[in-house]
Amino acid sequence: MRKGSSKKSGQSNSITSTATDLFRSASSKASLKEMERIDNLFYSYADRSSSLIDPEGIEALCSDMEIDHTDVRILMLAWKMKAEKQGYFTLEEWHQGLKALGADTISKLKKALPELEKEVRRPSSFMDFYKYAFRYCLTEEKQKSIDIESICQLLNLVLGSQFRAQVDYFIEYLKIQSDYKVINMDQWMGFYRFCNEISFPDHKNYDPELAWPLILDNFVEWMRAKQAA
To answer: What are the pLDDT digits (tens) for 32-69?
Structure first.
């Protein structure tokens, strides 16, 4: 009785093991094919000499996805890929982003964009995306700040849909003030905190004694003077 039971148990384990091996083999083949499609898609946009998707390749990609190259979703895609250099995607970055999105064709990539947008808009992800957007625009080695004109465009692109009034007024202020020619990461992140924490447009809970960047103290003073006029 025990011997028969042991034999059956051995057969069952053997069948289970074979089924598992077959599943792993099929899964591995599917994964390899998926990576092959992701690779092929990359090389359809990459520059042959550099083996990178360059600004021209990104424009072609945007055209195929039917979005403008200035659309915030292309920045979201760069964030998902953890792209390091503005206007360029490496094969490794492409792998990381498309695999995470489950996209190995342009059609799937287009369908993944709404979900990517939802992911970025979640508070747990958005701060990381907002910080990334600033770093992505640091195009020179050892660059730590961004010129006012570029910052205004970036604010509009990244934060405009969430905090329209704050962004519009801050952009207006940045364009007329003469104290600052560039914005650094601390000021950039300070404005995001300002949008989330300070009542607008009355600024009743704004305390300049707290650790706000000086540019925001000046902005609030300018706003109050504007409102009082």
So the answer is: 888 999 999 999 999 999 999 999 999 999 999 999 98
- C-alpha 114/C-alpha 111 separation (Å) is 7
Q: What is the pTM of this model?
A: 0.84
Token pair, residue 138, equals 């640091």
> How many other C-beta atoms are found inside a 10 Å radius of the C-beta of residue 17?
10
CATH code, domain carrying 171: 1.10.238.200
DSSP string of 27-84?
Answer: HHHHHHHHHHHHHHHHHHHSBTTTTBB-HHHHHHHHHHHT--TT-HHHHHHHHHHT--
Q: Are 65 and 113 in contact (CB under 8 A)?
A: yes
Please check whether residues 48 and 136 belong to one and the same domain. Answer: no
d(CA 196, CA 19): 53
Domain boundary among 103, 121, 139: 121
Specify the amino acid at residue 11: Q
The answer to the question of residue 12 being in a domain is: no
pLDDT of residue 141: 87
- Residues of the chain scoring pLDDT < 50: 1-2
In a domain, 25, yes or no: no
Concatenated DSSP letters for 80-100?
Answer: HHT--STT-B-HHHHHHHHHH
Domain boundary (94, 121, 148) is at: 121
13 belongs to a structural domain: no
Which pairs with CB-CB distance under 8 Å and at least 24 residues apart come from 163-167? 163/195, 163/200, 165/200, 165/201, 166/194, 166/195, 166/200, 167/195
